[in-house]
Write a structure and sequence with these properties.
This protein has a single domain (21-102), classed as 3-Layer(aba) Sandwich (Rossmann fold), CATH 3.40.50. Helix content is 52%, strand content 16%. The chain has four helices and three strands; from the N terminus they run αβαβαβα. It has helices at residues 4-11, 29-48, 64-76, 89-102, and strands at 16-22, 53-59, 82-84. The chain has a three-stranded parallel sheet with strand order 2-1-3, sandwiched between helices. The longest helix is centred in the middle third of the chain and has 20 residues, at 29-48. The chain starts with a helix and ends with a helix.
């Protein structure tokens, strides 16, 4: 049975906080721009369904070391529930173990 308290908690729930690690500058920026646009469209679609998503953006410039720093920040300072990205396989491989250590969904 759904109670009034359950409905109220759904209506006033805090947005889901997600991190985005993307190449917004650097040689992979054109691909990063397409990914940014897709992520924003998904956020809009979710909002239409009543699901609020707060996105915290990090630019990895296409470099694995920068991706690691971004993941560290998102997991420890921003306390995100999950992370979208990074795009390149080198950067994704670099952050995979770090995401697992912090129990952040990737």
């Amino acid at each position: 049975m759904i109670t009034a308290l359950m409905i109220a908690s759904l209506l006033f729930a805090a947005p889901v906080k997600l991190g985005v690690i993307n190449s917004m500058t650097g040689p992979e920026a054109p691909i990063g721009e397409n990914l940014t646009n897709g992520i924003k469209l998904a956020q809009e679609d979710l909002a239409k369904k009543g699901i609020q998503v707060e996105l915290i953006w990090e630019d990895d410039t296409g470099k694995p070391q920068v991706s690691l720093s971004a993941m560290e920040k998102l997991a420890t300072r921003d306390n995100v529930a999950g992370v979208v990205g990074p795009y390149s396989s080198a950067a994704a491989n670099a952050v995979a173990k770090l995401a697992e250590r912090y129990k952040v969904r990737r």
